[in-house]
């Protein structure tokens, strides 16, 4: 589906190290100086899903194909980016192109790693980024607000409604608040859709902690969690360096031993990737056959014909019906045939809303 999450943060907080760990198709240079990343690095990451492998254990396909998420490593923002500081305009444009933000925040002390902002202050770091994005959004909203204000004399009710939405957004941003925190109704959103506002994007925070704090967190990550409590946002606690080391290991046995040494059941990256996936309101359905067991990405709430279109557009155009087995039923009965024999295979039509985990087969005619 081409959806992307962008990794952002101040310089030297561990963004490129995190990108190196999560990306399976590109590697970013991780160095201890500002603007190491100038052009955004883009990679694809497999979305970890235990259900895919459980289905494969039953079906025994020739291949397994996970779904993927695009990850973009965006260069470190600095104070004043909204006014062009530190190549700010370019970097903010890169953020505008992604669908969600993974905000990496330094929650560890290390005198060997440069820091422009003085003492470690995760809440202050978060506020620097928030402020720069809010100022850029305010600039965009004010321009459209001024244009719309001049059209009010036309007495067009649509213009009046748009003006009121823009006014609310402007006042909200002027208070130092992000648009995602503003309770906009569905019918209000078209008024700002063309602005692609930075602070409207959903955010996931990564507290990059030291090795000793990777399981428990520390005073810095606790301060960050308290600061974002009102945002209904998730904070993932992890040590980016450890995660990068795990990702570089090609031998599964070596990875298992390494994680066992650090008392890890799975890489923290898995949780991060799954959380970023859900942040975008995405869901997964499966196709399961001898040739392949495959995960497919859709938006939550999609109906069966839309879901079929991610396989091929012809599937949506010629959609007839969908054969559906709930994931838990497939696992319980062990095969499509057994699920059918036990009345667990359903025939669904065009209005069926696909559930996360459905195992599906589409019938179509073009």
Describe the structure.
- This protein is an alpha/beta fold.
- It has helices at residues 15-22, 50-59, 88-96, 122-150, 157-174, 190-193, 219-227, 240-248, 252-261, 268-279, 304-309, 313-317, 327-333, 336-341, and strands spanning 4-8, 41-46, 63-65, 68-73, 100-107, 203-209, 235-238, 282-288, 292-299, 319-325, 346-348, 359-364.
- Strands 2-4-1-5-6-7 form a 6-stranded mixed β-sheet, sandwiched between helices.
- Helix 7 links the parallel strand 6 and strand 7.
- The model is unreliable at 24-38 (pLDDT under 50).
Main traits of this protein?
single chain, 366 residues, alpha/beta, three-stranded mixed sheet, flat
């Amino acid at each position: 589906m081409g959806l992307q999450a962008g990794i952002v943060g101040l310089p030297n907080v561990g963004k490129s190290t995190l990108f190196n760990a999560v990306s399976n198709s590109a590697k970013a240079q991780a160095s201890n100086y500002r603007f190491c990343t100038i052009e955004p690095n883009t990679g694809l990451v497999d979305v970890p899903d235990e259900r895919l492998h459980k289905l494969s254990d039953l079906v025994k396909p020739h291949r397994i194909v996970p779904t993927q998420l695009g990850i973009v490593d965006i260069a470190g923002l600095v104070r004043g980016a909204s006014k062009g500081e530190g190549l700010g305009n370019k970097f903010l444009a890169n953020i505008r192109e992604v669908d969600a933000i993974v905000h990496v925040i330094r929650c560890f002390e290390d005198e060997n790693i440069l820091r422009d902002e003085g003492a470690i202050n995760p809440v202050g770091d978060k506020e620097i980024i928030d402020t720069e994005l809010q100022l850029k959004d305010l600039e965009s909203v004010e321009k459209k607000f001024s244009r719309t204000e001049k059209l009010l004399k036309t007495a067009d009710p649509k213009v009046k409604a748009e003006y009121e939405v823009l006014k609310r957004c402007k006042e909200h941003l002027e208070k130092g608040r992000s648009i995602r925190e503003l309770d906009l109704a569905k019918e209000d959103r078209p008024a700002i859709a063309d602005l692609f506002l930075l602070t409207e994007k959903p955010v996931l925070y990564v507290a990059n902690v030291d090795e000793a704090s990777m399981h428990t967190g520390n005073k810095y990550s606790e301060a960050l969690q308290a600061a974002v409590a009102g945002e209904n946002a998730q904070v993932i606690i992890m040590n980016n360096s450890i995660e990068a080391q795990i990702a570089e290991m090609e031998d599964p046995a070596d990875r298992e031993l390494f994680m066992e040494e650090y008392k890890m059941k799975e890489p923290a990256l898995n949780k991060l990737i799954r959380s970023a996936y859900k942040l975008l309101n995405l869901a997964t359905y499966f196709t399961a056959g001898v040739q392949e067991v495959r995960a497919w990405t859709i938006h939550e709430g999609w109906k069966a014909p839309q879901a079929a279109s991610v396989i091929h557009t012809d599937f949506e155009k010629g959609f007839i019906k969908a054969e559906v087995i709930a994931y838990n039923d497939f696992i319980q009965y062990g095969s499509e045939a057994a699920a059918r024999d036990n009345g667990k295979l359903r025939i669904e039509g065009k209005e069926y809303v696909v559930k996360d985990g459905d195992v599906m087969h589409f019938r179509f005619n073009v």
